[in-house]
């Protein structure tokens, strides 16, 4: 990790410093940002010290000095992006760096703060036509919002707007993230996988792979960085989650009403191979979780899957489907009883109305599966259908069929199509 000296603007390796306290910057890249190669050159710094290109770094350094901090980290110039090894290591470490920072300065370059009404203006960038601040749409700012323990927000004139706690209402309105995660009343780690992925919906990144890479710290996983893999990065991220988590809300998504917004910047003309009615159990984009930020994992309702549970195979997701002992696999006409299956997941969604005591009640989430191939065969794989909806199951144990506890299983593979937006 490299840090900027807030007095000289020179770069230093933190390995040579004794537990340095540092500030960290969260911002939207605009125009020609300062690179590592530039800031690492004393000649370049001397020649460009008063240039507009350096203004943001100098302003952040000034704020750090006000907080009696000697060091600052900025993503644009503290990483040598010409080194793939360093870049991969940095992207996997970035969440931790934001968490360990003494303070995070969020600089919103395109808004003004009204100190009388305590309101943030719409974007003043003429290219954005009165939309919200660009900072809220950037993929990487999600982890930069969640990770810091102390965070201060500044408008385009570096006027202090408030902290993460004092701006909780505004941040909730802009991001859909519960206020409790900003005030410290709860930790966002308690949120389900589906909820955390939903926070990325609608955000954009300069590189399509960063839609997945920007979720690493939020989901608490590590993965190798492979720029060039395109949308497959998000699929690979989900496969890693299958290996490291038992949170089945990863399967609880629906076709997004606004389309695959995360990818529209990169692939504006086509949906490619994406079929919004039939797919596999893994979503093609975080946008598919946009309407499901209320999914929860209930400790008192969770029923562990049988040995084998579910796992990723070359075909797709493989489940051990519970069945009642002695179940006939075909009906009198020789048609399999497994042509259509309702798969109940170990995750819950709040019911529209609470219980009689005024508290929330929850129902298990279900998805519909349809057999591929002949319905006169008990063999074969399945696909997910009715992708535009999630069903509900009440008072049915997750590893039961029709409410009857099981002691037998049937292997079940849900084929996972490959999403290719170029086709």
Characterization of the model:
This protein has 423 residues and is of the alpha+beta class. Helix content is 22%, strand content 20%. It has twelve helices and 19 strands. It has helices at 36-39, 42-48, 52-66, 84-100, 141-146, 168-175, 180-183, 193-198, 210-213, 216-219, 232-244, 261-264, and strands spanning 2-5, 11-13, 22-27, 71-73, 103-107, 113-114, 119-120, 151-154, 160-163, 278-279, 310-312, 316-323, 340-350, 362-371, 382-385, 391-393, 400-401, 404-405, 408-415. A hairpin with a 3-residue loop joins strand 11 (310-312) and strand 12.
Structure in a nutshell:
Helix content is 22%, strand content 20%. It has helices spanning 36-39, 42-48, 52-66, 84-100, 141-146, 168-175, 180-183, 193-198, 210-213, 216-219, 232-244, 261-264, and strands spanning 2-5, 11-13, 22-27, 71-73, 103-107, 113-114, 119-120, 151-154, 160-163, 278-279, 310-312, 316-323, 340-350, 362-371, 382-385, 391-393, 400-401, 404-405, 408-415.
Entry keywords:
alpha+beta; seven-stranded mixed beta sheet; 12 helices; 19 strands
Annotate the secondary structure layout.
Elements: E1 2-5, E2 11-13, E3 22-27, H1 36-39, H2 42-48, H3 52-66, E4 71-73, H4 84-100, E5 103-107, E6 113-114, E7 119-120, H5 141-146, E8 151-154, E9 160-163, H6 168-175, H7 180-183, H8 193-198, H9 210-213, H10 216-219, H11 232-244, H12 261-264, E10 278-279, E11 310-312, E12 316-323, E13 340-350, E14 362-371, E15 382-385, E16 391-393, E17 400-401, E18 404-405, E19 408-415
Parallel strand pairs: 3-4, 3-5, 5-8
Antiparallel strand pairs: 1-2, 1-4, 6-7, 8-9, 10-15, 11-12, 12-19, 13-14, 14-15, 14-16, 17-18
């Amino acid at each position: 990790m490299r840090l900027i000296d807030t007095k000289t603007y020179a770069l230093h390796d933190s390995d040579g410093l004794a537990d340095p306290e540092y500030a960290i910057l969260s911002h939207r890249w605009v125009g020609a940002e300062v690179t590592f190669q530039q800031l690492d050159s004393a000649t370049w710094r001397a020649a460009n010290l008063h240039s507009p290109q350096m203004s943001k770094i100098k302003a952040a350094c000034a704020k750090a000095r006000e907080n009696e901090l000697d060091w600052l980290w900025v993503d644009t110039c503290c990483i040598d992006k010409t080194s793939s090894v360093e870049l991969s290591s940095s992207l996997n470490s970035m969440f931790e760096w934001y968490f360990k920072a003494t303070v995070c300065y969020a600089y919103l370059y395109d808004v003004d703060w009204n100190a009388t009404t305590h309101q943030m203006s719409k974007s003043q960038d003429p290219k954005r036509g009165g939309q919200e601040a660009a900072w809220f749409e950037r993929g990487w700012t999600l982890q930069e919002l969640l990770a810091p323990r102390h965070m201060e927000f500044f408008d385009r004139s570096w006027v202090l707007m408030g902290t993460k706690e004092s701006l909780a209402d505004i941040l909730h309105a802009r991001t859909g993230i519960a206020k409790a995660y900003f005030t410290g009343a709860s930790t966002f780690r308690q949120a389900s996988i589906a909820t955390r992925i939903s926070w990325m919906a609608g955000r954009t990144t300069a590189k399509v792979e960063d839609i997945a890479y920007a979720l690493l710290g939020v989901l608490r996983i590590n993965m190798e960085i492979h720029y060039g893999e395109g949308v497959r990065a998000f699929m690979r991220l989900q496969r890693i989650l299958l290996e490291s988590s038992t949170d089945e809300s990863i399967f609880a998504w629906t076709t997004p009403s606004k389309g695959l917004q995360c990818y529209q910047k990169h692939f504006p003309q086509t949906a490619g191979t994406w079929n919004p009615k039939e797919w596999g159990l893994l979503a093609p984009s975080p946008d598919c979780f946009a309407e499901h930020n209320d999914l929860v994992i209930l400790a008192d309702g969770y029923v562990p899957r049988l040995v084998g549970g579910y796992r990723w195979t070359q075909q797709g997701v493989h489940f051990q489907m519970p069945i009642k002992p002695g179940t006939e696999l075909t009906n009198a006409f020789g048609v399999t009883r497994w042509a259509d299956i309702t798969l109940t997941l170990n995750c819950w969604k709040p019911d529209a109305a609470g219980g009689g005591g005024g508290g929330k009640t929850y129902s298990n989430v279900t998805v519909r599966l349809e057999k591929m191939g002949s319905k006169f065969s008990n063999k074969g794989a399945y696909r997910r259908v009715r992708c535009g909806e999630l069903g509900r199951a009440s008072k049915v144990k997750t590893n039961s069929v029709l409410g009857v506890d099981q002691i037998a299983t049937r292997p079940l593979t849900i084929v996972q199509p490959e999403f290719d937006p170029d086709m």
